[in-house]
Design a protein that fits this description.
There is one protein chain. With 496 residues, the protein is mainly alpha-helical. Among the domains are: 3-34 and 41-70 and 84-200, no CATH class; 224-332, no CATH class. 43% of the residues lie in helices and 5% in strands. The strands form four sheets. It has a two-stranded antiparallel sheet. The longest helix is centred in the middle third of the chain and has 34 residues, at 208-241. 34% of the residues are buried. The model is unreliable at 39-93, 105-208 and 242-251 (pLDDT under 50).
Length: 496
């Protein structure tokens, strides 16, 4: 049971005895005769203690002679008493008595966390000499309000019992209650009355408004950091998935993965775009685009389309997006990878950047393995240097859109500019859209004197290179034999 709960157990007789005791004390301070119910000299001792307290307050009351009316709870002074200076100790004692009244008549008192700013600091107001206002009322709420009394208690009915007296535990009941009145503080009141001795500030994080403010500021900063991180993530997603300039893709929309392998031409890519649900005509959109200036790469003014510039890669596109966004992203990816270094190598080989791109497109169609690409580039450049027709059937297949079936005799003898069996030099345009490995092979050909190559008879994708036509005919016969043995189909690789 707490000290405050025990106050409820006091009987009516005890409360009446306490009230009579307070009346006798007030009478003694006014100089009125008081009957001693016990017949002992105890009252003289109390009066002597009160007089002594009044004596100690002489300096304070002399400095602050102003008077005021007593609180409503106290009895009004006599006419003779109005001119008598009232010491602060007496005022503090009255306040302590009022606190006792509040304790006995109040509802159960609720204990609270210690208050960091001592109420004794507020006794600066007590030295004004006004008897009624010497005790600054902490909270005029009455019996239900909590008076702020210095330490770890919230007195339920300590209304109007301000802070002139610093109450250690806000209740005299029990051994834990220590009333620290202004009379016992003594010299501690002097700096407060003179304006010195300001109350300490509460520290952030130890309870009170400052702690709450600190936590609120920390929470606000944390929220801002989270928002910044979320914005950064969204921007990164948009940049990675959302499309390039003019594209209509966004990272927040449902996505479709458009996979374009190396070596595909415009017609093949158009079929992929249709299969993946993109809207629009890819062949029409890939004829020309403001996203690319072909003349910058040495392309002729009559270049028919963007073949060769449509970089192969995997693109995240919005579901049912437009093919224009795909074309623009391909052109952007190409320009990121075909830069000044590649153009410099093209000039070193005596070619324009566009011609280098044509060579790369043929390498992409002819070589299946990375190790063969620089060798194919060497064969092309050797034949160009010697003025020998390239004799690459992939150019004829491109002209007739025959990518898998056997070439007919009519196709092999057709006068198309893409027929490199009949015409010397390069075809007029790229025949595919090469990847970065084929572009690098075209820019860095192998140092070899090969003039011929043919598919290997093992069917594993290797090319067999030779310097003379006789060597070439031997290698070709071996391949034809393997082809016949497999029923006219390309030989099957048996290596593990």
């Amino acid at each position: 049971m707490s000290p405050f709960d025990r106050t409820e157990e006091r009987t009516a007789a005890q409360r009446e005895a306490a009230r009579q005791e307070r009346e006798r004390r007030r009478a003694r301070r006014r100089g009125e005769p008081v009957a001693d119910p016990s017949g002992s000299g105890g009252e003289e001792g109390l009066a002597g203690r009160d007089d002594g307290a009044e004596g100690t307050e002489g300096a304070d009351t002399a400095a602050q002679p102003a008077q005021a009316e007593l609180p409503a709870q106290a009895a009004a002074p006599s006419a003779a008493e109005e001119h008598r200076p009232v010491g602060q100790a007496t005022q503090a004692w009255d306040v302590a008595e009022h606190l006792q009244d509040a304790e006995r008549s109040a509802a159960p008192v609720e204990a609270i966390d210690p208050v960091e700013r001592p109420a004794a600091a507020e006794t600066r107001e007590a030295g004004s000499g006004k008897a009624g206002s010497a005790a600054k009322v902490a909270s005029a709420a009455g019996a239900g309000s909590a008076a702020k009394v210095g330490s770890a208690a919230k007195v339920g009915s300590a209304a109007r019992a301000g802070s002139a007296a610093k109450v250690g535990s806000a209740a005299r009941a029990g051994s834990a209650a220590r009333v620290r009145s202004a009379a016992k503080v003594g010299s501690a009141r002097a700096p407060l009355a003179s304006g010195r001795g300001k109350p300490p500030r509460s520290r952030p994080g130890r309870g009170g408004g400052d702690g709450h403010s600190f936590r609120a500021r920390a929470g606000a900063i944390g929220a801002l950091v989270l928002v910044a991180v979320a914005v950064w993530v969204v921007v990164m997603l948009i940049q990675h998935f959302g499309g390039s300039k003019g594209g209509n893709a966004t990272a927040l929309a449902p996505q479709v993965k458009v996979v374009i392998p190396e070596g595909m031409d415009r017609r093949q890519i158009a079929a992929i775009a249709r299969k993946d649900g993109l809207k629009g005509s890819y062949l029409q959109v890939s004829t020309a685009s403001s996203a690319l200036q072909p003349k910058r790469f040495g392309a002729p003014a009559n270049m028919p389309n963007l073949e060769g510039f449509l970089f192969p890669a995997t693109y995240q596109m919005p579901v049912h997006g437009n093919v224009k966004g795909l074309v623009e992203r391909q052109l952007e990816a190409f320009q990121e990878r075909f830069g000044e270094e590649q153009q410099k190598h093209a000039r070193a080989l005596g070619l324009t950047s566009y011609q280098l791109l044509i060579v790369a497109s043929m390498i992409e169609r002819e070589a299946y393995l990375s190790k063969d690409r620089p060798l194919v580039a060497a064969v092309i450049y050797n034949r160009l240097r010697l003025g020998i027709p390239l004799g690459i059937d992939s150019t004829i297949r491109y002209a007739f859109n025959n990518l898998t079936g056997p070439l007919t005799e009519t196709q092999l003898k057709a006068p198309s500019p893409y027929n490199t069996r009949l015409h010397k030099g390069l075809p007029p345009t790229p025949i595919s859209n090469p990847g970065i490995e084929a572009i690098e092979a075209a820019a860095h050909p192998a140092h070899a004197g090969y003039l011929y190559y043919v598919d290997g008879a093992d069917g594993c994708g290797d090319l067999v290179f030779s310097n003379t036509e006789a060597e070439f005919e031997h290698d070709k016969a071996a391949y034809d034999e393997a082809l016949a043995a497999n029923g006219g189909r390309p030989p099957t690789c048996k290596q593990r």
